[in-house]
Request: fold
Amino acid sequence: MHEQNEIYANKIFFNAALPLIKVIAQDVPSLKKQFKNVHAIIQVSALDPDAEGGKIGMHFVVNGEDDWLVHLNAVDPKPHVELQFKSIEAMNAFFKGKIGPATLPKMKGVASHFGAFKAFLMTLLKMANVLGADKAPEAEEEKQLMVKCMFYLLTSGISQMNKLGHQEIHEWTAKSPDRVYALAVNDHPEVAAFIRIKAGKSRAGRGEYKRAMPFFTLRFDSFDSALGILLGTADMLDSVKKGKLIMDGAPEFGAQFGTFMLMIGDLAK
Reply:
């Protein structure tokens, strides 16, 4: 039996973090060109005796730079490239930076599909650097990428925990009417994310929520201000006083949303 926090962390890595590989591959030009001639099914999996077939995983179907399909909670029987971990605990440890003989995955398809393997591994390492950073990068485009990825990770992670039945998060969604909580940066609509909740159900989305005004938005005046809060290097109350962090909506609801964001961050590190 797995410890509950191991299950939660693994769900976040599979269904919230790994999908960011597509985002990074399409947003970083030097990585995007690596996939120009890639046509492959690329899978990340973990052996699990409790799962049907003894393995859980997700995979990408990649056909060139711009044609990516992401399949969550789906194990392909014959991927061209695969990183297979020996357990969900080993996978969690690997993505938390504890890399060693006990946590390294078995790498399949290296010889037969080296181009796809190389491109994927480079992008995976970039994702690990972005999500594992403890300070903001210097370049503005790197700051934008980091904020975008963290916004996506946090909103998707909260939704995934709700779907998994996390007690506090599920109680929050179960009691809620139809509401949207959003993350945004002023003057950068391309860097935004949201989660919509209602009566126990949740759905995370990327970009601005345009069907109606969100019930609550955690809005930052710049990427630097966002990273100060996301990386824990800035004080929230001080950021609010200085106008770096704007809470559009009722603060009491925002505090709960912020608590869940911190919870997801802790599980992923």
